[in-house]
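User: Structure tokens for both sequences below?

Assistant:
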Amino acid sequence: MRILFSCLAVVVLSVAANAQSAWKIVPGKPQTPWVADVNPVKPLPEYPRPQLKRANWQNWNGLWKYAITAASEQNIPTSFQGDILVPYPVESALSGVGKTVGKDQALWYSTSIALSKPSGTNQVILNFGAVDWQCDVFVNGKKVGRHEGGFDPFSFNITSYLGKGKQQAIALRVWDPTDDGPQPRGKQVKKPEGIWYTPVTGIWQTVWTEVLPATHIASTKHTPDVDASQLRVSARIEGAQAGDIVKFVALDGTQPIGEVTVPSGVDADIKIENAKLWSPASPYLYNLKVYLYRAGKQIDYAESYFAMRKSSLVKDAAGINRMALNNKIMFQYGPLDQGWWPDGLFTAPTDKALLFDIVKTKEMGFNMIRKHIKLEPARWYYYCDSVGILVWQDMPSGDLGGNHWDMRSGQVSGQNRDKQRSAESEGYYRKEWKAIMDAAHNFPSIVSWVPFNEAWGQFKTKEITEWTMKYDPSRLVNSASGGNFFYTGHILDIHHYPDPQMPDPEVFGKSGQALVLGEFGGFGLPVDGHTWQDKNNWGYQSFKNKEELLQRYTRSMNDLKKLIPLGLSAAVYTQTTDVEIETNGILTYDRKVMKMPEQTLKQLHQQLYDVTVK
């Protein structure tokens, strides 16, 4: 046994050594401190879906083969150009490739995975956290299906495509037109400059498989109702048969506190007595166990969690609507968070890196993050839930141009403020927005949806906003942050750089919407040795040193504090970190330098929360 163990250890070490020699980070760009912890044998090994967790799974991150071909190529290449480290996008340094693809080319992936065809009626589900943008999946040379969407997770049942042996060939064809197409793509452009960044193509979140029964829990939905002291639950069951039932058990730690059993696809409520309410000060999470039964026999099981919290508007003594958490007015203040990395672009180098930004934001005294023009991996939201930080979730924009941006709240404009999108463009937006809301619904930290930013691809604003409000009435909807205003949604949100401003409370204070400053600041400070490029870095207003920056920021906090008693509900400072040539971050892009001290920021921010609102 000891000899066998020694041989196995030698094999593992040999595989790791070979993987390390086959992969090298592309030089020339800043690196975060976590690069040294990236394991090319199995990067990002953590279970990727905390809201539907299972024990029987396999992670397929690691070195795959890649090829870049003409976009017209539809057949799996017979030869490949080298190795790519999945799940880092091909343009990133961590991928080991660092090449741009573009609309005229296709990116191909290939790997062989050790996976036998399951016995009986069990099924193998191949899961992708995210692939940007159009993705065709092949198993053993046969096309399984296509997914279009750069931010939402998706899955394919590959059972019938598996061969008899223990090795299965997986291939992907990815096509991504970036800003040459009408699809949601966030801040990616083919020619990065200013606030626009490097393209991201291909796999950028974890790839994994699960072996599940033919009838299994495909997804769950849970929505807290604080006023009624209950949790509404439902489950979508794949392959459901008449008589199948789902049991939800809510637990406080390990102690069951309530349960309900319902037929597949039916909503039900679990009473949560004396609920521990979730907040940034007390981010309490309950556990949730989900069982699937047929004829009294358990056939599937998954674990999840939930929190009891309410996001709503509450009128103050002056009759102005304020944003509230758990029926109490709470001033929400946080950074604009792009979620970009100098070494991984869309993909954090490690799970610790993913957590770092959230913890650091909380340490700086912010109670909110505006997640800007990007959907993060599920683990990012799990950490927000656990650490206790509110999230405003943007829809990634796309199909920009063609409409006028009127950023002055209340001004009537005769110009085209809503873009006339094609049916194809509208379809891409609607499909992905719904998929994003579905994927992120169960995360209690998300308290507001933001369908549009400024006038970027903004279309049919009232219709989209009202659909969003109806689809998820448990959250606030900020229809167009800093965009063209149509008096719809819960929030009136202006952008004003660099100084804090707000919509006139005398005019808009009793309009029924909360008044918000969705972006301000943008104070730039390039730090030598920690910039994306050596010169021509950019900020909304640039400073020469940390002392000047802190002095200016302190002045803005004093100005912001004066607006809160007038009716301001929330504010968003640009931004958490530098991103490429944009040096507006409190942290440098490589996360190695804090431009202002955490403790000083925390003290400044606490003064905002201490303002009395009656």
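Moving on to the next sequence.
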Amino acid sequence: MKLLWLDLNSSYAHSSLALPALHAQIATDTSIEWEVVSATIGENVGMIVNNIYSHCPDIIAATTWLFNHEQLLHIVSRAKALLPHCTIILGGPEFLGNNEAFLRKNPFVNGVFRGEGEEVFPSWLKVWNRPDSWSHITGLCYLESNERYCDNGIARVMNFDRLISPEESRFFNWSKPFVQLETTRGCFNTCAFCVSGGEKPIRTIDMATIRQRITEIHRRGIKNVRVLDRTFNYDNKRAKELLTLFLEFSPDICFHLEIHPALLSAELKEELAKLPQGLLHLEAGIQSLREEVLVQSQRMGKLSKALEGLQFLCSLPQMETHADLIAGLPLYHLSEIFEDVHTLAGYGAGEIQLESLKLLPGTEMRRRAEELGIQYSPLPPYEVLQTREITVEELQTARYLSRLLDGFYNVPTWRSVTQQLMLAHPAFLSDLLHYVIQLGLIDQPLSMEKRGLILYEFCQKAYPEAQALVSIAWIEAGMSLKKLPAEKVRTKRQVPFEEWQVIYGEYHETLRLCFLPIHEEKGYWFGFESEAQKLQPVFKATNLQRDSI
């Protein structure tokens, strides 16, 4: 029997764990001939279908999720037309809800799995060509020959710690810039908008096994590991043990974690504060800074504790903490989103990720959408279109705000200056947003240099006292000293000031200096190793009273 796995991702930087996770459990079964067709959603559908057809598989299997859903159906529907006797089986988070309507609308799909597949998929493969024997396969949803819908519930792998790890599969992709590592499965939380909200119980892998797996990852030269645990610190004792384990691989590996700031114990805070630079990259789930919004969303943890924990995480200089907000949550107003963004900037969040709520299949919030006054798209990605608290136009503004944050706050080059201006001028963010929208550039891809030009020209018009901040960021990013943000920079015959305060680097006579005046002959000197046209400075000094403007 020939099984073809369609590995369809949003980009080649990403790779699904589903294939190696399933294959690892049955890799020794010689009755199955495995083929893989890998592609991205941006590729030509016809070419992907031709590739599938050339293999003449008996089964086509794939994981379906938000952003590959539409393209995946285009591909497998054509493949089915060319290979009518081929069985098409799908799984993934898109099928956590009621699947009857999907199966009736897409009759070329023979069945879909709900839940975790490592144990039930091998069982199905034993009877794949005998649909009359599918009734005992937990998690499988399908239409019988008489069109009756059969729903076999949800599959859970209760012996999660006994699974063969995905890294042992020949299909595990070691060529990506990062790998994913799942050390627990399930979630203690009950968030109504999340597909993991009811995923219980929590199941774990022991530390010895995790050490063995990370050792292999390290041996392969991987520098970044994304830990897929829904909440890394649901158990502070276990979190501390994992941090101790991660330290064994410092400084070679950076671990990306999702952490709940409301659940940080004093002991775990102490451990986090001692960790070295670059070991952790943190995603702090916050969603909203409004108590009533979190209560309505059924998110566990007191807001006051979450804010205290987030402030602590953002204060740690040796790691970057990203915080996320979700527009479209019930009871969440646009004005509150702007206020929450300002609060997070005040905490010093490394990134502020503002996403639009998506009502995913199988979630409590989707089931209660009408009751909560939420209107949403019935097609992927199921984004919220309007709520009682936020209009269609306001949600569009929130999307634009997300683009603005990604373009200016969430990139190191412009983060500091954007943050300073946001905190100094409460209207700055909304003013800049309006300006970029008016330019017609809010949805356009912008180079780092173009963003700097926009920011400088905007400050010229609205915040002239802030132009120097943009100029400094421009120079330190190594951008051209012949362009507008460097218009006040002096590059000719600059010599050391008799008394300056060195901010970084060390001056020596071979450095080429430029001077940015702030107040008459007071300002900043930047030193370059060679001709200062488009290079990052290695030296910075000032003769201002303090390093501020």
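User: Anything stand out in the second?

Assistant: The CA atoms of residues 259 and 342 lie 21 Å apart.
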